[in-house]
Specification:
Number of strands: 6
Strand order of the largest sheet: 1-2-3
Number of helices: 3
Low-confidence stretches: none
Distance between the termini: 39 Å
Number of domains: 2
Radius of gyration: 19 Å
Mean pLDDT: 88
Strand content: 15-25%
């Protein structure tokens, strides 16, 4: 096996792999928006795997659950609007949230357009 840097010539094979195995997910456009992208090939230069390191914008909040639901909802909306502004300002097109053991909070985030991925990450596309 050989690890090497991604090349634009890899795109047709990567698209074939994507269409064969990952077509239900959003295509990961490795050619833009990544800090680094790398390919692992076999001894015959056939692509086994591709990976990349992509920056994400993560929103982190702490909420006083002793406050009224109305106040918490209003606070969430203010934080969301400011977070969206910040993400756009720095060139991001998504916000990520990782919620631990709080299905009620996940439902609140879904109401403000977050989508839940297969691995329980909440993603808001901007």
């Amino acid at each position: 096996m050989k690890l090497r840097e991604f090349q634009n010539e890899d795109i047709p094979e990567i698209k074939r792999i994507y269409e064969s195995f990952y077509n239900d997910n959003e295509y990961p456009h490795f050619e833009t928006g990544y800090y680094d992208v790398f390919v692992v090939t076999d001894d015959n230069k056939k692509i086994i795997s591709i990976g990349g390191v992509k920056p994400i914008m993560e929103i982190i909040t702490l909420t006083n659950k002793n406050c009224s639901v109305r106040d918490r909802k209003d606070a969430l909306i203010q934080i969301m609007n400011t977070s969206i502004y910040t993400a756009v300002k720095f060139g991001f097109n998504q916000l990520h949230a990782f919620v631990h053991d709080d299905s009620e909070w996940i439902e609140h985030l879904k109401k403000v357009q977050f989508k839940v991925s297969d691995n329980q990450v909440l993603i808001l596309s901007i």
